[in-house]
Design brief:
The chain is α/β, with parallel strands linked by helices. The chain is 37% helix and 21% strand.
């Protein structure tokens, strides 16, 4: 993290705005990523920069970020329960849920073998159920939670569904299409933007996959 970011983070944690040379109000750009490391209590700002703002909007505080992370973890627990269903069925244990206005509207786990369907990934199954629940193929008010970084197919489906936010657990170094091998979501050539947060309950998401592959050896 850059020294300027460290200074900004410490001032954010104290509830103040960063110092500036000119007498202007400062605000975080929407492109800044604010996250809270609950175990260490460290506030981290990644890829952030500042610009003058004419309005008087409150900055996101460390407490707000912590609350959001806790909420994300609760929904990721639901996705992990779905992954457990896949494990019990002998499928690769990946789970996903779609959340809209504080309730689960779609739930899925890998069903490739069960359904003889190469597209039946957890995220696709969850998005299909959400579409049926809401009666709309556009899911603009929804968040997608997946236990592993989505592949190119699932990332593309999230874009077509116009989901507002994507939260995932473990990175997928072999097929991940958020940043690992491809950048499908938020590709500069596409017009839909999705807020992305990775690494939520990543250890547990990876552990269930490791258990599955260990048992197959």
């Amino acid at each position: 993290m850059l020294a300027n970011d460290e200074n900004a983070a410490s001032q954010l944690a104290a509830g103040s705005r960063p110092n500036s040379r000119a007498p202007v109000e400062w605000d975080l750009l929407a492109s800044a990523f604010l996250s809270s490391e609950l175990r260490t209590g460290e506030l981290r700002i990644e890829h952030s920069f500042w610009q003058p703002a004419t309005g008087h909007r409150p900055l996101t505080t460390a407490s707000d970020a912590s609350d959001k992370l806790l909420s994300d973890e609760l929904w990721m627990e639901e996705a992990l329960r779905s992954a457990q269903r896949a494990l019990e069925a002998g499928e690769v244990p990946v789970g996903a849920v779609v959340v809209c206005q504080g309730r689960v509207v779609g739930r899925g786990w890998n069903r490739n073998l069960t359904d003889c369907d190469p597209t039946a990934h957890a995220e696709i199954v969850a998005l299909r159920e959400a579409g049926r629940t809401l009666g709309n193929h556009r899911l603009g008010d929804c968040e997608l939670f997946a236990t592993i970084e989505p592949c190119a197919m699932c990332a593309g489906a999230a874009i077509h569904a116009r989901v507002r936010r994507l939260v995932y657990g473990a990175d997928d170094p072999k097929a991940g299409a958020i940043h690992s091998i491809l950048q499908v979501v938020n590709h500069p050539g596409l017009n839909h933007r999705i807020e992305v947060r990775g690494g939520v309950l990543a250890g547990r998401s990876a552990e269930i996959l490791q258990e599955f592959f260990r048992n197959r050896r």
